[in-house]
Amino acid sequence: MPFKTPSFWYKSANWQALLLSPLSALYAVGHKLNVSFQKPYKSNVPVICIGNIVMGGSGKTPTVLALLDLITEQNIAKNPVILTRGYGGSTTKATIVDPAIHTYHDVGDEALLLVKHAQVIVSPDRKEGAQKAEEIGADLILMDDGLQNNTLYKDINLLVVDGANPFGNGFVLPAGPLREPKSCALKRCDAVISINEQVNLDKILFSANIQSDSTHLDADKNYVAFAGLGRPEKFKTTLEDLGFKISCWHPFADHHPYTKEDLEDLDAHAVKHNATLITTSKDHVRLPDPYQHTTQVLPITLSFDNSAALASFLKERLYS
Hints:
single chain; alpha/beta; nine-stranded mixed beta sheet; four-stranded parallel beta sheet
């Protein structure tokens, strides 16, 4: 079910967070017990996990793609495969994603974005997904998400954080956005990738920045902007920072399954304001026809500040 991030998660401790904090304590205990009783499967293919600690909005997907490019360019692997659970999709078994036959209803929106760049396996069961990767001859598994999943052994755990607000109010679900206590995640991760701003953590740190490609867009037009992300307001801020004129803004829940009625409503606003619809790449794959052809997209890419250092780190951890 699509989830809308509560605004108090990213504010200082307030009455909502304090009221829910006893439930957060129970959630943290349950998570620790669940991890303790899981026995991870050790694949014969090295696994790099790119995870986060908050519910959405950390920049994990562009990080996976940037790492894929780095791994290919530096010859760290010849046949890397991306493994993702396919959040929002109906697939229950390990499946090699084929964009010609699969929709986001089958494999989720992230898988359809990732498969444009590499072979992707969707599997809610990470062990089964790793075994599928072994079958097709992968020499490296990039595990998209799964820092809190202990069913598959990871050779490297990378924690991705939004440097501007890495941990929200600091509370674990449901009082805050954290999937587990920060201290637990930091113990398990081998390095932190901090996006846009540096964080002060006692871990190996690699800085990165997200850039938007607006060269194909007309800055003189009016736009009706919408997004269904963990923190959709970040998309609106990006458009405003780029100087785009936003006539209307419509935030949706994370992974919102857009309907024809949703788009008809958005289109009516666009007609009223003589504007064009615009959204994110992740949202675009969830749009019904014909709106995929009439809605503009603002693509983003991520680059590492010191890609050579990150490549050396990966090589040392994987092959030394």
